[in-house]
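Researcher: Structure for this, please.
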Amino acid sequence: MTASRREFLLFSAGIASVALPWSSNVFSLKEGPGFLVAEENAPILLYSNENAYGPSPKVTEAMRAAIGGSNRYPRLRYRELKERIAAYHKVAADRVLLGCGSTEILRMAACAFLGQGKQLIHASPTFEAIEHYARTVDSQVVEVPLTASFAHDLERMLARVTPSTTLVYICNPNNPTASLTPRKDLEAFIAKVPASTVVIVDEAYHHYAGSSAMYASFIDHPVHDDKVIIARTFSKVYGLAGLRLGYAVGSPTVLERMKKFGTEDNLNAIATLAAFAALDDSGGVSNFIEHNANDRQEFYNQAMTRGLKPIDSHTNFVMMNTFHEADEIIEQFRKHNIMIGRHFPPMNTYIRVSLGLPEEMQAFWRIWDLLPYPRNMMHH
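Model: Predicted structure, token format:
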């Protein structure tokens, strides 16, 4: 039975969170006024990098209010939402393109800039959606392994650029490794890429990355280069993965080329109103970021007590080396009703774990300690 059959969204006010004891039957719980109700034996979902706490109460209330208008297309709100997102980022509205999740933004880019005889360059491993879209339009795909520090190997990527390279994809922070590529290195790379090559910077996990010398958003701190497109999503920190809403910020000329390949009526009424509420709920975002930072630190603490060293994470998930075949680890967790990220070649002994609620992470470590490996083999 799939998760979608096990879980349904409850939009009733005043529901209290429920605390259940851990047993052989694992429950997946959600807190807040709108949460996922779990049935007995429903899996704990630590595999899709979702916000385990969201959406916020304010956003949930907006979603509840929007249900009554679900019989209408939200076309009259499209421009208003574009203008609201543009104002949020202090850019003109014609520099914003809306999509059904940021994956549709990637599909539009693939259709607009790739095709037979053209080439996509991306890291390996990274978020694979754009690779799939590139192959559907008969493009060549060039994969460049990450560096030893799990950053994009920009020097090697640049060396692979040819006149047929029309699109470069950079996910930063990167999925699945949760790692950063330094901002200064990205700027130097973009400056050297030919004007005929579009560069997509996917900032899906931007809110979790913080601000540092290593990281700065290309929306908040633009490079003013028309070949750069920045992709964002409401799926992560805003907790709206199930509603599918994303957007791109870029040159109006570039976005117009992409827009032709967008799905007609690609926004839904609930997502549209939820987005307005999410953008206005700075307190909710700060709360989610704080929860994530605490949960991530606790994950590190638990890993260190077991002699494990995860990759330094700048997201709401963690990747770590188990020193055993990833597929074996994944299957062991699946047998105990915990779903973690899939195998990501060539990182064959690494697993990706999305951060869940504290009680879900307690269940994760309880099952980890049941893994059929000698304890001393886990210390490297």
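Researcher: Any notable elements?
Model: The longest strand covers residues 165-171. Residues 1-37 have pLDDT under 50 and may be disordered.
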